[in-house]
Amino acid sequence: MTIIEDSPTTEREFGRARKRKEDARLITGRTKWTDNIQLPGMLHLAMVRSPYASATISAIDTSEAKAASGVVGVWTGPELAGSETGLPCAWPITPDMKAPTHPSIAQGRVAFAGEIVAVVAARSAIDAIDAAEKVIVDYDDTTPVLDMEQALAEGSPLVHPELGTNKNATWIFDSGEAGTGDSADAAIAAARTDPDSIVVQRRYRQQRLIPAFMEPRSTVVDPTGEQITVWSATQVPHFVRIFMALVTGTPESKIRVIAPDVGGGFGGKLQFTPEEVITFLLARAIGKPVKYTESRSESMVSSHHGRDQIQQLTLSAKRDGTVTGLKVELLADMGAYLGLVSPGVPILGAFMFNSIYKFPAYRFECTNVFTNKTWTDAYRGAGRPEATFAIERLMDALASELGREPMELRQQNWITHEEFPFTTVCGLTYDSGNYEAATAKAMELFDYDGLRREQAERRERRDPIQLGIGISTFTEMCGLAPSRVLGSLNYVGGGWENAAIRMLPTGKVEVVTGTSPHGQGHETAWSQIVADRLGVAFEDVEVLHGDTQVSPRGLDSYGSRSLVVGGVAVSLAADKVIEKARVVAAHLLEASPDDLEFAAGNFTVRGTDQSTSLATIAFASFDAHNLPDGIEPGIDAEATFDPPNFSYPHGTHLCATEVDTETGVVTIRTYVCVDDIGTVLNPLIVEGQVHGGLAQGIAQALYEDGVYDDSGTLTAASLATYHIPSASDLPSFTTDRTVTPATSNHLGVKGVGEAGTIASTPAVVNSVVDALAPWGVDDIEMPMTPMRVWKMIQSAIPSSTTGGNA
Amino acid sequence: MIPSTFDYEAPTTVEDALTLLASAGDREVKVMAGGQSLLPVLRLRLAAPELVIDLGKIDELRGVSDDGDAVVIGAMTTHDDVVREPLIRQHALLLSATAQTVADPQIRHRGTLGGALAHADPAGDMGAPALALDAQMVIASLGGARRTVPAVEFFADLFSTAVGDGELLVAVRVPKHTGWGAHYEKMNRVAQAWSMVAVAAAVRVDGGTIAEAKVALTNMGVVPLRAHAVEQALVGRPATAESVRVAAASAAEGTSPMSDGNADEEFRRHLATVLTGRAVLAAAGI
User: Is A662 on the interface with B (CB under 8 A)?
Assistant: First the structure.
């Protein structure tokens, strides 16, 4: 990676590797984190959380806590029961979906360890925490439900007895029924009896992950004003405002929500949380500002988790390698409750298991299951990493069964670049892509053939350090989302994004965006778009966001949507500013608007040297002394963009791992990715997104595991036991790009926020499995810990020392 | 989280610290060195001492000196100083090599040798090299009294040492191992995590023969353990990979490793042999 120094030139901003203007304050922490906010008379909250995964609460004694130093009050479930409706689920995937009520504070029973049972308000945070330890709760604990398959078995204890089942919903897509392809069941049945066909069945486990954003969640609520102001470390301030109104019965117009600077989210802050509701309710009840900031330990057990699926996969193919059918049967762990989009997360993967391959027949069936664990919801990639993992592992399995070179097998089945736009077996239309180009570039950077030779040599000499090569040729759907498509999936809400541009009288520009950055660099990127479009200096553009009073319309940031939906809206708003300004400019230049050219911030009468600047027009429309008749003062403009399609970034990721067969340690030697994310606005920000995404995807393959013990206690409840890799655990990545512009937006951009995470996990697992192919290993459960790898080697007998590929 | 409230004292001499300890009576007291283990424990409220005595301002506890046949390292010498200090590198390289692997740079700049040894975490790194090098722990009590305890007696049990009530570990006296090769072979899940198993090895090779060898194991029991069988099998053997492989096979003898999610007992025993082989090879420069 090359760091390009900023220099004061007039070069085009689009495509320029600008360093992020927001980083100095974000990195030093001298900025507006929610927990930095101090208000006069502010009270602090501490939560009392259940240590049991499943229990009824027989008594809560708050008397000692209430008498403790600095304590203003202690509340339990019954005292807050009437003041909220319970937390919402915005994605009821089926009409008959079973959903438990989800109170912010437990009402007589708890369904996971970490659930809030009481809350203390005190004059200082330490008083609140001290008093919380004095709340005495009597629990009658019952056997928790921890395993998805056991949860569905006859006679299992129930997470929510009132539902009568641990099944949330079953959601099915069948290309035969949908008319977008043939029946997968028929294709697989036919393959079973056809000597020229093969059926490959595999079961994969997607372990539970914890988003582990850097800034713990924090909420401050100030009720001392006409509007109750909520500051929260959230990705979704606009969602929070709407749901806070609905859940607490406060008119939406009486609530202002601000997401100040937010330190990471990865989907983990795409949530409307019990803690936000409780803080709001107590501030409203007490009439004073109230703050709640979680500890890291609380964050690990109570912020939502991600992934956690059991994947049963059946693929049929001709013996020549042509795929003929794919059937996906999933169990997805919801945990104890449904969050904002929990049931829909696996459904976001439903359309991606077929990936870049031309499956003629496809069936997806997912059953969501309740267990007595922290609830799951969106985590970087949300459904699509699971899908990509399954298909990329499965393509390797097919290659292995057929004795084929895994890349060549993929190439045989993928959509060629001449075939775009391509309508898939799921009915999605991939607008653009070039899998051949990305793959060719990646193979060259990786020295694929050279590494294969080395692999053969190491096998030949029985080197204790074996080499594996893993492939992931991925695509994903992001840029959430066309509103109509969301509607067809029963999602409660749209997928558009809004932007406004304010032309200030002094020539400076304010850009208002409905997206809500939490580390992505929107302030820099949106400034680049506007600087280019309006011909103003990058430094003269200020980006405003994350405050429902400043940015009243928005649908926030997640699903790699910010640039491809929100950034496009910014660009459209700039175009509207130009068109408004053109009328004023024509008036001042005494020319026809049609005769004006706009370039580099100036309107020029075509064929003359007569011109005026946008800044001049901005002031002229501010003082309004000389405007055309019928033209309102001001050239501010607003635009809303509802994307016509998803965005389909793709790429080829290649991973070489060295597997120490004596210790089971896996070391990534080379990681090459060539991503195609369409036109690139800021290559440096793209690098950052790809590097971070790779780290998280690799972490799933090798390190992270949200594991519970038999009593339902999260054992990975701190960063000492939940293993997040650091830079020293990861290789230096080789990243590159190909560019096939998106056709679904005029900037040609595709999302990049999740690509690295989605693509990398199967590349790593494929490479380790490939390294151990001579031992007959065909799967290793994630995370591939040294112990798991070593035990796999111990339990296998080397089949040969010169095995073929994968 | 925020720790429970505690009183805090930061004495400037060892005698003042001992006086504070003596006068604490029945109060629960924790002595803080670099705080890199204690502070997380306090913040998680796994401990709630009434008094914390911070040794950070006691200058006499820092620094390294040459004492003839030994190097004397003040208990409050940081890991980073142990890594860099020329006297230690020259005469007790194993300690430097091990300190280099402790956690991350921030922790190495705060955490101390004495603090790590007195904490006696079985997965902590500094116990094994101290044991391997036959370090002597200098323990002070009120009135200027000093007693010396060999490392093998110092580590009593899980998080428990020979430092008694009213006492402080003030220095570590390490016999000179000038000219010995040294290596600490460590395995952990991620760079900043505790050792699953690690092996500290110091070897003196003379004319192609292993003249002396000292090997100790981290996290193969509740305390650091010497791998005497390995040492005996090495001494007098030619410095070759084959000698080392044969000797390392007995690394897990007499150990009693625990099982956890990262490594069960069987895997730890296996790792002990593999890592011992690698540590000795590296130490011997083979």
Answer: yes
Nearest C-alpha neighbor of A317 from the set A385, A390, A404? A404
3-state SS string for A685-707: HHHHHHHHHHHHHHHHHHCCCCC
Say whether residue A726 is in contact with chain B using an 8 A CB cutoff: yes
pLDDT for the residue numbered A797: 64
Write down the pLDDT at residue A9: 45
Which structure tokens are listed for A258? Answer: 């601000």
Is B260 an 8 Å CB contact of chain A? no
Cα separation, A702 vs A789, whole angstroms: 10
User: Across residues A135-140, what is the average pLDDT?
Assistant: 98
**Angle, CA B223 vertex, CA B218 and CA B224 arms, to 5°:** 40
pLDDT tens across A334-391, in order? 999 999 999 999 999 999 999 999 999 999 999 999 999 999 999 999 999 999 999 9
> Do residue B2 and residue A723 have CB atoms under 8 angstroms apart?
no
The per-residue pLDDT for B1 is 83
**Mean pLDDT in residue range A217-243:** 98
- Amino acid (1-letter code) at residue A152: L
Tokens linked to B275: 């890592």
Residues of chain B with pLDDT under 50: none
Amino acid A29: pLDDT: 86
Both tokens of B30, joined, read: 């924790």
CA dihedral A37, A39, A45, A46 (to 10 degrees): 40
Question: For residue A256, what pLDDT is reported?
Answer: 98
Give mean pLDDT, residues A435-459: 98
Angstroms from A134 CA to nearest CA on chain B = 13
Give the tens place of pLDDT for each residue, A295-327.
Answer: 999 999 999 999 999 999 999 999 999 999 999
Q: What is the pLDDT of residue A8?
A: 43
Please state the ipTM of this predicted complex: 0.96
Check residue A798 and give its pLDDT: 56
Q: Which residue of B has its CA nearest to A792?
A: B267
Report the distance separating Cα B2 and Cα B6, nearest Å: 11
**How would DSSP label each residue in B76-126?**
T-BHHHHHH-HHHHHH-HHHHHHHTTSS-HHHHHH-BHHHHHHHT-TT-SS
Report the distance separating Cα A522 and Cα A515, nearest Å.
8
Q: Say yes or no: A465 contacts chain B, CB-CB below 8 A.
A: no
Q: Hey, what are A173's tokens?
A: 């897509």
Question: Residues B94-109: pLDDT tens digits?
Answer: 999 999 999 999 999 9
Q: What is the pLDDT of residue A617?
A: 97
The mean pLDDT of A541-547, rounded to a whole number, is 98
Name chain A contacts of B104, Cβ cutoff 8 Å: 726
Instruction: Judge whether A330 and A365 are in contact, CB under 8 Å.
Output: yes
The contacts of residue B282 (CB under 8 Å, 6+ apart) are B181, B183, B185, B201
Which of A4, A3, A12, A5 is closest to A538 using CA atoms?
A12
Q: Is A38 touching B (CB cutoff 8 A)?
A: no
- Report yes or no: A125 at the B interface, CB cutoff 8 Å: yes
Does B192 contact A at CB distance below 8 Å?
A: yes
Q: Beta B51-54 vs B64-66: how paired, if at all?
A: unpaired
Q: Which of residues 71-90 of B touch A (CB under 8 A)?
A: none
**Of residues B189, B271, B274, nearest to A785 (C-beta):** B189
Question: What would the two tokens of residue A194 be?
Answer: 């056809």
Chain B residue at shortest CA distance from A707:
B261
In angstroms, what CA-CA distances link B37 with A154, A716, B4, B151, B194? 47, 18, 16, 21, 12
Please give the Cα distance from B54 to B59 (Å, whole number): 12
Strands B29-32 and B51-54: parallel
Please, are residues B170 and B179 in contact by the beta-carbon 8 Å criterion? no
